[in-house]
Design a protein that fits this description.
Elements: H1 9-35, H2 48-58, H3 65-81, H4 86-108, H5 112-115, H6 122-149, H7 153-177, H8 181-194, H9 203-218, H10 228-237, H11 240-260, H12 272-285, H13 287-311, H14 321-330, E1 333-341, H15 344-351, H16 353-370, E2 376-381, E3 384-390, H17 394-410, E4 413-414, E5 420-421, E6 425-431, H18 439-455, E7 461-463
Parallel strand pairs: 6-7
Antiparallel strand pairs: 1-3, 1-6, 2-3, 4-5
This protein binds guanosine-5'-triphosphate.
Amino acid sequence: MQPSHDHLRPVAGLDLKDALLVGALVTVCSIFGIYTAPPGVLAAFWPTNAVLVGLLLRRAHPPTAAHWLAAVAGYIVADIHMGHGWPKTLMLTTTNLMGVSVCYGLLKRMSDDMRGLRHPRSMLRFVLVALCGAAAAGIGGTVIHPALFGGTRAYGFLFWFSTELVNYIAILPVLLTMPDLARRLAGRTRRSDAAGWRIGHLAPLAAFAGSLWLETQLGGPGVISFPIPAMLWCALTYSLFATAGITLLFSMWTLLAIASGMLAIGAAVDTPQAIMSLRVGVTLTALAPLAVASVMVARNELLARLQHAASHDPLTQVLNRGGFMARADSVRATVVLMMDIDYFKKVNDTHGHAAGDEVLIHFARVAAGCLRAGDVLGRLGGEEFAVLLPDCAPEDARAIAQRICDAFAAQPVVLEGGVRLHATVSIGLGCRDAPDTPIGTLLSQADAALYSAKHAGRNRVVLA
Ligand SMILES: Nc1nc2c(ncn2[C@@H]2O[C@H](COP(=O)(O)OP(=O)(O)OP(=O)(O)O)[C@@H](O)[C@H]2O)c(=O)[nH]1
C-alpha cells in the first residue's frame, strides 16, 4: 500500500503561497530601492536584503528551495522591469544574495534569545553578523562595481559594504524584534488589565520628536547626536521593538534631512566618501539605544524570573507563604480555606521523602483544578496549603472545599514502580463576617476550623 501524503499537502500549499509572498516583497522592495537611485549610481536606500533576511528568519519553519527561488525571481523581475539588461541583473542579484545568505546563515545559528536581541551580548553578536553580511556583499562589489559603474575594486567594496551595513543595522532589528500577533494581543490585554498606561508614557517619544526639531533649528555637526538622550530614554521606557522602530526613524530622518538640506550640519556631504561616512556614522549612533533596550529586555526577564522564584514554591509551583500573603493584601477574599494533608508524616516515613514530594505536587494540581479563575492557592509551609476565595458565599466555598477533598481522596498518586498511594486532606473555612475583618483573623478562623476537622476524624471540611 502506498503511504498517504495527504498531511503534507496543506503545508506544501502554504509554503508555495508563502514563497510567492516572499518573491512579491523582494520585487516591491527592490523596485522601491531602484527608484531611490540617482542616475548611473546604485540605490541610495536598498531595504530588500535586510527585509528578506528578516522575513526568512521570522517564518515558523526554515525556508524551502521555493522561498529562495522566489527571492531570486523577485530580484530579477525588479531589475528587468526597471530596464536593466540580463548581465547586470544577474551580477546585482548574485551580489545581493551573497550578503543575504551570509547574514541569514549566521543569524540562523544563534539561539532565539540571541537572535531576538534579548540577550545582554546580543547587540555585539548582531553587529558582527551585520559586518560579515556587509563584507560578503562588499566582496561581490569588488567584482561587479568596477564592471558596472566604474571605479576601483576598493571603492566597489566600500560602497557595497557600507550600504549593506547601514541597511542591516537600521532595518533588521525591527524585523527581528517584531512581536507576533498572538503575543501582541496578549500584551495589549495585560496592559489594559494593569491600567498602568499613563499620558506620561509619551514623554520619551515627545522628547525624541523635540530633539529632531531642535536639530533643524540649531544646525552644525553636533546636531546628529542631539536625539541620543531621548532615544536612550525611549530604550529605558518602551519595548525593544518600539526602540528599534524609533532608531530606524532616526537613521532615515537624519539621512533624508541632511540630503534635502533641512538639516544643515555645516559640512558638505557631496562626495561618495562623505555620504558613506555619514550613513555608517548615523547608523552606528543608533546602536547605543538598541543596546540599552536589548539589555533592558534581558534585565526585565531576569527580574521577572527572580520575582517568580521569590514568591513561588519551587516544588509545587504555587505561591509560597510570602507570595500568598502579598496577594491576600490585594485580593479581597470573602472566604479563606486552610488545607492540611492527613498523616503526611506517615507517607514520608513509609514511602520516603521523594514520595511525600510527589503527594504535595499532586495535591497542588488537584486543588488548583477545583478552583475558579481568580481564586488564589498557596503553600504556607510543609503539607499546609491555603486558598483565598474572592466574592464567594460560605456555602459555595464549602462546595469548593468539598470538591477538593473528594477529588484528592479519589485520585491516588502513582509512585515510581506503579505503587498507588491514597491520601486525604482536611480543610477548615474562615468566612469574612464584616467588611473590615483583617485577613489574619480569617486565617486564624480557618486554622481553628482545620483543627476541628482533624479532631473530628480528618478527610473532611469544617466551617468556622
Ligand atoms: N516530603 C516532604 N515532607 C515534608 C515537606 N515539608 C514538611 N514535610 C514533612 O511533613 C510532615 C508533617 O507531619 P505532621 O505535622 O506531624 O502532620 P501529619 O503527619 O500530616 O499529621 P496530621 O496533620 O495530624 O494529619 C513532617 O514529617 C515533615 O517533615 C516537604 O517539602 N516534603
